[in-house]
Here is the input.
Amino acid sequence: MYFASIRIITGDVARIVEFYETATRVTAKWSTDDFAEIITPSATLALAGTRTVQTLGEQAPPPATNQSVIIEFRVADVDAEYHRLKEFDIDVVNKPTTMPWGNRSLLFRDPDGNLVNFFTPVTPEAITRYGH
Here is the structure.
């Protein structure tokens, strides 16, 4: 099995794509007006409009209602990313903090309220766990 992506369903694809392009510095690959992907070397973040799930009817996930998933990106220097992102008026939930498991993490929200974590492994154990 190969973990390929996480998909966010949104009511405003252009807005959320712009946000993730700014946050990640990765240009999205657009497939349609309702579907784009932020493709990184390790995984893909798919960003899709509500029309992409309309065939699910009442079972379709509603946009902007996530309460349990955190989208995580490993970055080289979380403190530098924090200072860069501050100029974009992001909704910071937790400034860079070293967590008990050895990652230094910055937690913020995307325009739909989804939690996003940028982290850098900083302890020897965490560095070993991520292979750097």
Remarks:
- Residues 67-132 form a domain with the 2,3-Dihydroxybiphenyl 1,2-Dioxygenase; domain 1 fold (CATH 3.10.180.10).
